[in-house]
Amino acid sequence: MKKFQTTYLRILAIAPSSRGFGFALFEGQGTLVDWGVKSVQGDKNAQCLAKVKDMIAHYQPGVVVLENTSVKNSRRSPRIRNLTRRIIALAASCNVGVRVFSRKQVRKDFFADGGEGTKYALAEKIAKRFPEELGFRLPPKRRAWESEDSRMDIFDAVAIALAFNAQRKQFVEV
């Protein structure tokens, strides 16, 4: 397996879901290097952790970013909350930094009206920002009776990584 080496900060964003997780790998201030969805069956948390561990070993990120599922109003399932805690512990044991962002923090960076907007609107903005990489991956808008397309996990991961980059820029510009 080939390992990457770079002088830029490498950001691995992970977005756990009911089917596995979406991920996005950024290098520097916004270069999208890799993205995708990892699906699992059976013991989902154990399989997700194994896949995340392999990704950390392969990509050697400087930081792992995740959704903050420990906030009081988080609507994530107990399994996802537990998985997020375990990913944080795994990254720390691999000497990788960890940052978490609430959904509100992520949406604030994309919507000028204080964070109001749909998940699909957020995905559309990301697809426009990365048209060659993600434009064709944007699923059709789901109807109320349909389940969410697994490709939306990619857009969740990219949004979290972009929120991290936006926060980094604020600290650099001050």
What integer is the average pLDDT?
Answer: 88
Strand order of the largest sheet: 3-2-1-4-5
Summarize the amount of helix as a percent range. 40-55%
Q: Which CATH architecture is right?
A: 2-Layer Sandwich
Number of discrete helical segments: 6
**What would you give as the CATH superfamily?**
Ribonuclease H-like superfamily/Ribonuclease H
H-E order: EEEHEHEHHHH
Query: Got a strand count?
Result: 5
Q: Which of globular, elongated, flat, extended, rod-shaped describes the shape? A: globular
Question: Stretches where pLDDT falls below 50 for ≥5 residues?
Answer: none
* Major sheet characteristics: 5 strands, mixed
**Overall number of domains:** 1
CATH class: Alpha Beta
CATH topology title = Nucleotidyltransferase, domain 5
- The N- and C-terminal alpha carbons lie at a distance of 40 Å
Provide a short characterization of the protein structure.
The chain has 174 residues and is α/β, with parallel strands linked by helices. 44% of the residues lie in helices and 20% in strands.
How would you characterize this protein structure?
- With 174 residues, the chain is of the alpha/beta class.
- The protein has a single domain (10-173), classed as Nucleotidyltransferase, domain 5 (2-Layer Sandwich), CATH 3.30.420.10.
- The chain is built from 6 helices and 5 strands.
- It has helices spanning 44-59, 78-93, 103-110, 119-129, 131-134, 152-173; strands at 10-17, 20-27, 31-39, 63-67, 97-101.
- Strands 3-2-1-4-5 form a 5-stranded mixed beta sheet, sandwiched between helices.
- A hairpin with a 3-residue loop joins strand 2 (20-27) and strand 3.
- Helix 1 packs parallel to helix 2 (78-93) and helix 3 (103-110) crosses helix 6.
- The longest helix has 22 residues, at 152-173.
- It is globular and about 40 Å long.
